[in-house]
């Protein structure tokens, strides 16, 4: 309503002005009405402008066309005059509105464009800051991102500075794959190409190899993933990151050197202990006692060796059994070991090794391994049909001389039934039955095995099946 009120005000002003100027404007009846139509259309829109056209037109018709004070049309020129007024005034009102709308649209478009430019500039600034932070992080980590284009067989790098520090100053932003391969150590090249092909086929991969930079051998680690494929599924592009792994590799080598040195020193210490024991028992103990003591030290040393080969990160149960019983397996065709592959923690591995040594020593002296045709079976399985899964290990002798329960428990029996049971947190029972010695070991699975993941392999069965 405000728009129409404004149009009425403009029309009234134009009519009053025309009446006031009537003595001076003979023959130009609508001269003040055309500006009013254009002004009303521009300020308030085409509908308000048409209202002003009608009000001014009827006022001019009534006061200035034909007989004054009448709407009669007596001559054709009067009708033409009215027709031309309404046509021209309507065009001015509509045209002014269109010009105003066009100007408004142009202004809004400019504002939108400026806003888009501001947003785009802000996005660019954020991207530049993010890119700068990423570049700083990559340089701190001595890493460089890359994109491998399989169609051109070229590699595009993200940072020349890091690339030059990593692989040499003669590499450019875009490097041919063959040129990059020329940096790889000749001893690693074939394996690197095979691993790269496997990674491309799998869609992702992690590779390590040595490169030669200015005559210096360095280690690198590359991680990549295929990010673009053709319609037939063949890879087109792979992106990833390559970092300098030299310091980590040197640290690992140094760590391994320290472990080897520690192992050597422990073995020397054990040899010294063995020598001291030999000298100590030389006059005060029998040869049997000395042999038993030395055998236990040697068993401890073999278990230590097995763990050292794996950096004390666990060892397979089969290897523990094999290392502890190896001195007694010569000529014993009936020695059988069977069970799922399990990685035993380092602490219980030592205790199990000593236990198997005691059992094997007893079998070689008095049991199945003391006569031809005797046999020893060592089997284990995981029992999951209990609230807490158990690792069940069974030692059983057969084919040896008939035995009877001992009158007095020796060191070996005490080591098994007390020491081993406490160490494993389970049950250990040695049975002296006429067919041969049988040892049953039941211990919590998660306490012995390095991972709590249950093995998928099937086991040998209960002790009664042994």
TrEMBL record:
<keyword id="KW-0808">Transferase</keyword>
<keyword id="KW-0067">ATP-binding</keyword>
<dbReference type="InterPro" id="IPR038318">
    <property type="entry name" value="KdpD_sf"/>
</dbReference>
<keyword id="KW-0902">Two-component regulatory system</keyword>
<dbReference type="Pfam" id="PF07536">
    <property type="entry name" value="HWE_HK"/>
</dbReference>
<dbReference type="InterPro" id="IPR013655">
    <property type="entry name" value="PAS_fold_3"/>
</dbReference>
<dbReference type="GO" id="GO:0005524">
    <property type="term" value="F:ATP binding"/>
</dbReference>
<feature type="transmembrane region" description="Helical">
    <location>
        <begin position="51"/>
        <end position="73"/>
    </location>
</feature>
<dbReference type="InterPro" id="IPR011102">
    <property type="entry name" value="Sig_transdc_His_kinase_HWE"/>
</dbReference>
<keyword id="KW-1133">Transmembrane helix</keyword>
<dbReference type="GO" id="GO:0000160">
    <property type="term" value="P:phosphorelay signal transduction system"/>
</dbReference>
<dbReference type="InterPro" id="IPR036890">
    <property type="entry name" value="HATPase_C_sf"/>
</dbReference>
<feature type="domain" description="Signal transduction histidine kinase HWE region">
    <location>
        <begin position="261"/>
        <end position="341"/>
    </location>
</feature>
<keyword id="KW-0812">Transmembrane</keyword>
<keyword id="KW-0472">Membrane</keyword>
<feature type="transmembrane region" description="Helical">
    <location>
        <begin position="5"/>
        <end position="21"/>
    </location>
</feature>
<keyword id="KW-0418">Kinase</keyword>
<protein>
    <recommendedName>
        <fullName>histidine kinase</fullName>
        <ecNumber>2.7.13.3</ecNumber>
    </recommendedName>
</protein>
<dbReference type="GO" id="GO:0016020">
    <property type="term" value="C:membrane"/>
</dbReference>
<keyword id="KW-0597">Phosphoprotein</keyword>
<feature type="transmembrane region" description="Helical">
    <location>
        <begin position="79"/>
        <end position="99"/>
    </location>
</feature>
<dbReference type="Pfam" id="PF13493">
    <property type="entry name" value="DUF4118"/>
</dbReference>
<dbReference type="InterPro" id="IPR035965">
    <property type="entry name" value="PAS-like_dom_sf"/>
</dbReference>
<dbReference type="Pfam" id="PF08447">
    <property type="entry name" value="PAS_3"/>
</dbReference>
<keyword id="KW-0547">Nucleotide-binding</keyword>
<dbReference type="InterPro" id="IPR025201">
    <property type="entry name" value="KdpD_TM"/>
</dbReference>
<dbReference type="GO" id="GO:0004673">
    <property type="term" value="F:protein histidine kinase activity"/>
</dbReference>
């Amino acid at each position: 309503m405000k728009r129409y009120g404004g149009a009425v005000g403009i029309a009234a002003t134009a009519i009053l002005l025309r009446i006031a100027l009537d003595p001076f404007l003979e023959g130009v009846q609508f001269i003040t009405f055309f500006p009013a139509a254009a002004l009303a259309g521009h300020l308030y829109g085409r509908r308000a402008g048409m209202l002003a056209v009608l009000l001014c037109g009827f006022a001019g018709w009534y006061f200035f066309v034909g007989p004054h004070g009448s709407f009669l049309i007596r001559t054709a020129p009067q009708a033409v005059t009215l027709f031309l007024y309404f046509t021209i005034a309507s065009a001015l009102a509509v045209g002014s509105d269109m010009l105003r709308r066009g100007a408004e649209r142009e202004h809004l478009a400019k504002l939108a464009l400026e806003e888009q430019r501001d947003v785009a500039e802000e996005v660019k600034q954020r991207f530049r800051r993010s890119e700068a932070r990423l570049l700083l992080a990559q340089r701190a980590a001595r890493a460089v991102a890359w994109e491998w284009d399989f169609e051109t067989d070229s590699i595009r790098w993200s940072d020349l500075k890091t690339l030059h520090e990593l692989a040499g100053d003669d590499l450019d932003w875009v490097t041919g794959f063959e040129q990059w391969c020329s940096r790889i150590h000749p001893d690693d090249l074939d394996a690197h190409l095979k691993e790269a092909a496997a990674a491309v086929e799998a869609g992702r991969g992690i590779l390590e190899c040595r490169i030669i930079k200015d005559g210096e051998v360095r280690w690198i680690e590359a991680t990549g993933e295929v990010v673009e494929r053709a319609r037939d599924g063949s890879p087109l592009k792979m992106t990833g990151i390559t970092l300098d792994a030299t310091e980590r590799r040197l640290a690992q080598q140094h760590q391994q050197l320290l472990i080897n040195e520690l192992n050597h020193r422990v073995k020397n210490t054990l040899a010294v202990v063995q020598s001291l024991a030999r000298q100590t028992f030389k006059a005060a103990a029998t040869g049997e006692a000395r042999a038993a003591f030395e055998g236990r030290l040697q068993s401890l040393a073999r278990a230590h060796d097995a763990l050292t080969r794996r950096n004390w990160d666990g060892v397979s149960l089969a290897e523990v059994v094999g290392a502890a019983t190896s001195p007694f397996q010569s000529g014993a065709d009936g020695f059988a070991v069977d069970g799922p592959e399990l990685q035993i923690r380092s602490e219980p591995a030592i205790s199990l090794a000593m236990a198997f040594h005691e059992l094997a020593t007893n079998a070689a002296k008095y049991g199945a391994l003391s006569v031809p045709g005797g046999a020893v079976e060592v089997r284990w399985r995981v029992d999951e049909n209990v609230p807490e899964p158990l690792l069940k290990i069974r030692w059983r002798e057969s084919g040896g001389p008939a035995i009877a329960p001992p009158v007095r428990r020796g060191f070996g029996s005490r080591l098994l039934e007390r020491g081993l049971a406490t160490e494993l947190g389970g049950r250990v029972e040695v049975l002296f039955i006429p067919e041969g010695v049988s040892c049953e070991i039941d211990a919590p699975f998660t306490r012995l095995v390095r991972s709590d993941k249950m093995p998928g392999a099937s086991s040998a069965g209960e002790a009664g099946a042994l």
